[in-house]
Amino acid sequence: MSKFLFLFFASSLLISCGEKTPKDVLPQDKMATVLLDYLKVDNYAFDHLKNDSTINDTVAALKMQKAVFAKHKVSREAFEKSINYYADHPKTLNVILDSVINRQMRKDTTKKPTKVLPVIDNL
Questions:
Q1: How many CB atoms lie under 10 A from the CB of residue 8?
Q2: DSSP secondary-structure letter at 20?
Q3: Which of 17, 109, 113, 120 is the most buried (most CB within 10 A)?
Q4: Beta-carbon neighbour count of residue 77 at 10 Å?
Q5: Which residue in 23, 14, 20 sits closest to 93, CA to CA?
Q6: Which residues, other chains included, contact 51 with Cβ-Cβ below 8 Å and sequence gap of 6+?
């Protein structure tokens, strides 16, 4: 699913208007932060958990997404509204996606991964 979401964002290259971001849309930096965590848990759920027949990967993904939203103090509705807004403003979306990619690339891969979301342990 994360691949579809990423392709959706990347393929929405339309001409962007120079209007201000509405107040009920997540700011670019926060959107990049939430989106990065969202894509990580989505990728984990559908690439790793789908092979475990004891876990429903869709339910697990929803639980982990809920944990991401709670961690960042963002509602699913605000996140979805922001996704839709930025999809209609591809120049801004490209800036957000570049930020997501750069943040992920800057991660030190030699460090031991930490569990960002404890909900994974509760599946």
A1: 11
A2: P
A3: 120
A4: 10
A5: 14
A6: none
Least confident of 30-34, 84-88, 119-123: 119-123
- Residue 18: count of CB within 10 angstroms of its CB: 6
Per-residue pLDDT of 43-99, as tens digits, reads 888 787 777 777 777 888 899 999 999 999 999 999 999 999 999 999 999 999 999
According to DSSP, residue 118 is labeled G
- Write out the two tokens for 28: 């670019």
How far is 106 from 86, CA to CA, in rounded Å? 24
Question: Lowest mean pLDDT: which of 3-7, 19-23, 28-32, 97-101?
Answer: 3-7
Residue 34: exposed, middle, or buried by beta-carbon count in 10 A (0-12, 13-18, 19+)? buried
Tokens of 91: 């120049």
The more confident residue out of 18 and 105 is 105
d(CA 66, CA 60): 10
**What is d(CA 109, CA 105) in angstroms, rounded to the nearest whole number?**
9
